[in-house]
TrEMBL record:
Pfam families: Oxysterol_BP. Signal peptide: none annotated. This is Oxysterol-binding protein 2. It comes from the Eukaryota. InterPro entries: OSBP_sf, Oxysterol-bd.
Length: 118
C-alpha cells in the first residue's frame, strides 16, 4: 500500500481490468490505462480527445432537442441503458435505479446496444 499512495487493498482493486465487461465500463478508459502505465503525456492527449468527443455528442443532442422543439416534436434525449431515474418516495430526491439487462447482456456478451464512448 505504501507504494500505491496508501490506498486500501479494496481501493487498489476497484480499477483492476476485468474481462467480458461492457465496452462502456470506465475501467476501459484509454486515458486511464495510459496514465496507470506512466505514459502521462499520451494520457493527457487521450483525455482531451475523449472530452472533446463527449462535448460533440452533447452539442449534437442539444441541436436535436432544439430542432425537435422547433418542429413541435417530443425529444427524449439520452436514455441510460441500465438505470432509470425515479423519485425516491422517502426523500423526494431524484435517484437512479437499476432497471436490469446488464448481467444478461454480459452473459450473452451482446454489447450491441452500447454507445461508442471511447
Amino acid at each position: 500500500a505504501e507504494n500505491m499512495y496508501f490506498f486500501s487493498d479494496l481501493a487498489l482493486t476497484l480499477n483492476e481490468p476485468e474481462e467480458r465487461v461492457a465496452p462502456t465500463d470506465s475501467r476501459l478508459r484509454p486515458d486511464q490505462r495510459l496514465m496507470e502505465s506512466g505514459r502521462w503525456d499520451e494520457a493527457n492527449v487521450e483525455k482531451q480527445r475523449l472530452e472533446e468527443k463527449q462535448r460533440a455528442v452533447r452539442r449534437r443532442r442539444e441541436a436535436e432537442a432544439v430542432e425537435a422543439l422547433e418542429e413541435g416534436k417530443d425529444y427524449e434525449g439520452y436514455i441510460p441503458l441500465w438505470f432509470e431515474r425515479k423519485v425516491d418516495p422517502m426523500t423526494g430526491e431524484l435517484i437512479c435505479v437499476y432497471k436490469g439487462g446488464y448481467w444478461e447482456a454480459k452473459d450473452r456478451q451482446d454489447w450491441s446496444m452500447c454507445p461508442d464512448i471511447f
